[in-house]
Amino acid sequence: MAALYILAEGGGPEWQVWPVSDAVPAGAIREGVSYLFELRDSTDALSADLLIDDAPVEALRSRHPHVARWRWNPGFHAGLVEVELRSPSIGTRHFEVTTDPDLRKLTRDDFDAMVREVLEDTFALFSLSAFRKGIARQPGNRPPPLARLEFLRSRAEAIIGTVEAIARAPRHYLGAEDVKLPAHRATRATGPEIIRSFRSGVIRTETVSPSRLPPVLMGRLPAHITLRQRRNSLDIPEHQQIKACLKSWAAWLSGAAELLNGAKLADDIETASTASSWAAKARRIARQLSHVASTGFMSEVSEGSAQLRMSSLFRNAPVYQRFYRLWQDMNLGLAALFGDFLQMPLARTYELYELWCFLRLLRAAVEEYGATDVDLSNLFLSETSGSVTIAAGAITVPIGGDRILCFQRQYREYWVGDDREGSFSRTMVPDVVLAGMGLGGVERRVIVLDAKYRINDGLNDALSSIHTYRDALVQEAASGRTEGLVTAAYLLTPHVPTGLQTDFKATPVPGRLFHPEYRKRFRFGAISLRPGMTGEDLRLCLRTIIADAGAGA
After folding, report:
1. Bridge partners (DSSP) listed for residue 483
2. Can you give the C-alpha Rg of the chain in angstroms?
3. Contact 409, 417 (CB under 8 A)
4. Nearest-angstrom CA–CA distance, 356 and 361
5. Which residues make Cβ contacts (< 8 Å) with residue 62, sequence separation at least 6?
6. Distance CA 320, CA 317 (A)
7. Are the C-beta atoms of residues 357 and 492 closer than 8 Å to each other?
8. Could you tell me whether strands 220-222 and 388-390 are parallel, antiparallel, or unpaired per DSSP bridges?
9. pLDDT of res. 9
10. What is the distance between the alpha carbons of residues 153 and 334, in angstroms, rounded to a whole number?
11. Strand order across the 3-8 sheet
12. Whole-angstrom distance, CA of residue 87 vs CA of residue 45
């Protein structure tokens, strides 16, 4: 029997992933390692294909005719991937594989917590901006935030419009069905259909003579004949999934309305009135979604799973593709924050950690310095489709006074920019830069923070980056000479040091980088920034960075 296995390319244990999936230990399949998929005991191995997240996997030549092999490198991806196996003998099979962060980094639970905090921080900052967007769903015993309902309402309205657009020209297929008719009405019955009808039901014998039936029937005929008829059907898997999603969203909104009505609100008339108003809006949207799910062409569609599966229709048909994107938006607004191992659209874990560090520090800075002078207009982008996204890079956010916090700011050659600040060699892009007045002193300071999603010995390889930023970033003085721009440079890492000695000289690397005396003396080192830290911990971390950068000034 054909079976699919996965194993590390360099050898070691192997696990069956199809048709029966083995229990794969946490951390066994992780980012940064190359793996082999092997389809064994297959009669058509040469014709088999393997796709991961709809992308073909690199096929390798096998020495055995009944074995197909593919090489897969997850890169820096950690999360849930969908695997699709195609073979003429077994058809198309779907299953999922979970990849973990590198063992030198964090556990799967830590990665989950980091993803959750990215969502929390992002949408907390949304509330300070000109945009409104929902946050991920909380447990069902708490009413949803009103800002998230605003987001869901805009998406629901777009969904209803999209379903109505689909209804104008829905996709269908030509299906066949069996219809049982009395013998006297089955005038178009074929010979095979009459023969098959003899297998069940009442058989009648002709009493008149001469017989009007063909001699081969010997005067006998089924009382009812089953005819095979073809008709157009709208009951396709995509429509089934759409219908189930509509009903699921309607049920969730109805439940949210009940929670809003039943929540214990403070003695605030305005808050109570707002909650009551949103309860009515949620019920109205739920009724609209239910109506769309049960009328028109949807009345002919059976209900499937409330989970869209990427197909050629969702990929290629514009109106169906629009619904798929709206479904992704709804998942963002409805996805559970606790318990689920979320797969972020950020494809690589180290990029997620960089964004996480920036958002954590930005939120801590807003709480530390106040939100009065915070300008988030560069952080969020409004798209032509009406959605709002967080900027991918090169972000500068004023955080009060002349202080700024930058994410992936580009420093070109210092003689190119008007501020005469930059690199004397090549363009450099540090992950986070904190700059301005009032950062532990009266003069302007520039603190470079490089996020490294590594722990233990992996930090030793990351030191060169902050050495480079501290030495190669310069500014041109009034005299025309260049001088160092960076006041202090630190690594941001989830690593928690242990065994620190009283004297930093006696502490081995990487622990030495975290030693308070080492950081203050050299304005260089590492800071622990780990998922699960409280708001107070983050503000303390920010104060520590600023204090160390100003020590000895």
Report:
1. 475
2. 32
3. no
4. 9
5. 45, 68, 69
6. 5
7. yes
8. unpaired
9. 87
10. 12
11. 14-18, 3-8, 35-40, 68-72, 58-60
12. 8
- Strand, coil or helix: 8: strand
How confident is the model at residue 150, as a pLDDT? 59
- Give the Cα separation of 208 and 202 in Å (integer): 19
* CATH architecture under which domain 3-99 falls: Sandwich (2.60)
pLDDT of residue 433: 92
The whole-angstrom distance between residue 208's C-alpha and the CA centroid of its chain comes to 74
Tell which residue, 161, 238, 234, 226, has the closest CA to residue 200.
226
- What is the secondary structure of 506-539 as a DSSP string? GSPTTGGGG-HHHHHHHTEEEEE--TT--HHHHH
- Cβ count within 10 A of residue 411: 23
38: left (phi over 0), alpha (psi -120 to 50) or beta: beta
* Exposed / middle / buried, residue 29 (Cβ in 10 Å: 0-12, 13-18, 19+): buried
Q: Which residues of the chain have pLDDT under 50?
A: 76-77, 103-104, 130-141, 147, 266, 335-348, 383-388
Report helix, strand and coil shares of the chain as percent, to nearest 5.
Answer: 35, 25, 40
Give the containing element (helix H, strand E) for 503: none
Query: Nearest 5 degrees, angle CA 522-CA 523-CA 524?
Result: 85
Cα atoms in the 13 Å half-sphere on the side-chain side of 87: 21
**Tens digits of residue pLDDT in 358-391:** 888 988 888 888 877 787 777 765 544 444 455 6
**pLDDT of amino acid 4:** 92
- The predicted structure's pLDDT at residue 32: 63
Domain boundaries, the chain: 3-99, 145-168+236-334, 349-550
